[in-house]
Queue: 2 jobs
Job 1
Amino acid sequence: MPSAHIDFDFTSDKVAQRVLKMRSSAVRDLFSAATREDIISLSGGMPDVSLLPQTSIRKAVKAAADDKRALALQYTATDGLLGTKQVVCDLVRDVGIRCKPADVLLTTGAQEALDLVAKAFIDPGDLILAEGPTYLGALQAFSAYEPEIRCIPLDNKGLRTDLLEEELAHIGKGKVKFFYTIPNFQNPAGVTMAPERRKRLIELSEEYDFMIVEDDPYGRLRYEGGHALPLKALSDKVIYLGTVSKTFAPGLRTGWVIAPHCVLARINLVKQGTDLCGSAFTMVVVEHYFRDTPWQKTLQTFIETYRERRDAMLAALEEFFPPEATWTHPEGGFFVWVTLPPYVDTGSMLTTALEKGVTYTPGDSFYPKASAGRNCMRIAFCFESPENLREAIRRLALVINDRLELYRAFLDAGAIKGTGTG
Ligand SMILES: Cc1ncc(COP(=O)(O)O)c(C=O)c1O
């Protein structure tokens, strides 16, 4: 994976101003380091696709190749193939969303859906609200269209709707374009929005006249606790984004938008200029996988495996991390969010962590302004074995303890006053 670093630049006076403002994704930049043999990676949210049964994949791919209508090899409608859209309707019905194929538009992963929503709805200077921290890929997608993005804090019950209300009262009605949220097992914080807060968010969207973009890649990966209804099941107006990346495979690059027709029509329009249509071949593979193979069994294997890994990570955190650290306890998904004392900068600590053979994602990547989240980190438990996770947390604890020792020595020497924001 090439890094976004540029050595020689003959384009500097030609490149678009908005591109000059873009930040590269820390996760993408860490990708090559994270695949080094000696490194245990806690940085990427990669599903463990080795758990997928080869027979099911072969069957779905063969069905696409053998399709008599050769649909899979042709351009398709911009909103995607009908059969695959019907499969999406069947999948989301399980989580409480009722829709028809006409309410669905297929995308190249949820990431393209984020870009299309931004392309269709954001003008430069528009105000967008999101949870803080939030998914860095969404920040990248939105930033390309130059909005102002403000973050509303989370706690263990997800979005602080009380703080959102305060912010909205300050901003006023009709000033926010949309609120972007990941209610289930949030990326990066791992927390889930409580049902009463979901309801409140919908009420606020009506009261203050903004759209809600609900991004739900992890909703089906629940390891404990009860299912909470998606926002889309509570209000038809919500723009709901889904993907097969975490329940099947990200290599298929298949996602979807479920939204009112006035929204889909605009997204359809901007998608035409982006790629005409998604890959019909992968749409047909996805359709056959979810229609003709025992995918629920595979999903159960994913759930059991990730639950074991989550438990291993949480146990290792208890065992090795210093008392100054706190972390979230995700009921599903891929991520734990760790908060260290305010004077620790997890970005500058990463080089030492890499030397010790472990990677994570520094917290500031998940905020629109790099000054926030610097004492935090996201650690992913989805990809490594329980043994490797324990070893990774042990190594990371050594790095953190070294930092804390250093700061304690400074404190003793009176060089740092109290717990500054450093
Ligand atoms: C919250 C969130 N949204 C969107 C995506 C992108 O998903 P996809 O692989 O479908 O493009 C991810 C991927 O990790 C994610 O965590």
Note: Residues 45, 109-111, 135, 137, 182, 187, 215, 217, 243, 245, 250, 255 surround pyridoxal-5'-phosphate (CB under 6 Å).
Job 2
Amino acid sequence: MDRGTPPPTLIYGGTVLTLDDAGTVLEGGEVLLRDGRIAAVGRHLTAAPGTEIVDAEGCFVLPGLIQGHVHLGQTFFRGLAEGRRLLPWLRQRIWPLEAAHDDDSAYCCTLLGAAECLLSGTTTVQDIGIGPGVGGLMAALADSRLRAIAGKCLMDGGDGLPERLKEDADRTLAEAEALGDRLAAGGRVRYALNPRFVLSCSDALWRGVRELAEKRGWPIHTHALEQREETDAVRRAKGRDEIDYFDELGVLDADLRIAHGVWLEPAHLERLRRRRFAVVHCPSSNLKLGSGVADVVGLKRASIPVGLGCDGTACSNHLDAFEELRLAALLQKLKHGPEAFSGRDALALATRDGARALGLGDEIGSLEIGKQADVVVLAGHGADLWAAPPVDPHDLVAFSASRAHVREVFVGGERLVSDGALVHLDLAQIRRRAERAMAALLKRSGLDL
Ligand SMILES: [Zn+2]
């Protein structure tokens, strides 16, 4: 649907955290959005007649947050798989629930998750998708107006996988390609190939993914090295670890983004820094499932791009990137010492570094002229974001702000959240539709919860 070009907008008077290379901060700064892009950043900018004006005095203005790994198709399953480690979590609850999705439930579930993302300042997601119902998921992403990279979640076997999720490798690849073909070139939703993880994909499926990635220029997004039991099971099944396995199948020659990477070893890093390889760190999910803590500092030292994601609400229970970036910083401080990870580092994970991890470093992730106009304004008038003048605003936002402060959200210059409320989506209606769709999904799943 062509929604037309949003009107130019001038955001003025706030503390602008550009997250550019130099970490430039402008007190009383201005950001001009025009034709979907950032047209100017500075002070005393001139606004043409017809420009919408946003008074951000006392507020913080920063790039829209980027989540490099989410499952919006699991939003309905929040709290339904508590107290389990990864493999039983998948086999006992998540896969049977995902297998019961149809287009309607997937649409409502994804839109509910997208609403939570927008209201908490996330403007870009990379979603690993679902199998049945993926058409509904893609439609909801498009209707949400989030910037997204998404696709069908691919699986063709493995222990405990329900029959409905066990697809023929050739057929599921053909469906994935057709789904990617339907996306408009240059649109806000882009395609990725999403094999779930090594244990649920055959060698033939991985080879097919590799060939399709090369043929179409699509990235590959998967889970790897999340939990010790999982990596042990991979060694038993494949005779080697995930990185050796990906290397032998040529998957490491593609544009590969893995979620987690908790169990990457130092010996892997030297090999991976020369590849188009990125890690998406999901600290809440890793803590909740007892997986471990990824070495983000070590990955950054090895020049491997690292982004951030909340994973799904079925494991982390939330889609709030502010909570996630704060937690990421605290964990790296615990691991490496308090000086090892600053507030600016934490914000970078969810902005500039996250953009690089998704191959979008030239497009999003900082407030610089020519980039997409993806911008968040945080209300800073309350007692909780007060600080004495010398404080670094990166530290203030990273360690003291939360989604409760999100006031305005722009994606491609389009205002999607205004005064803390969704502009184009009706949250009450989404919730009513979600209740009906989830009740029907539970019935189809056959689970006795
Ligand atoms: Zn995941």
Note: Residues 69, 71, 128, 223, 259, 311-312 surround zinc ion (CB under 6 Å).
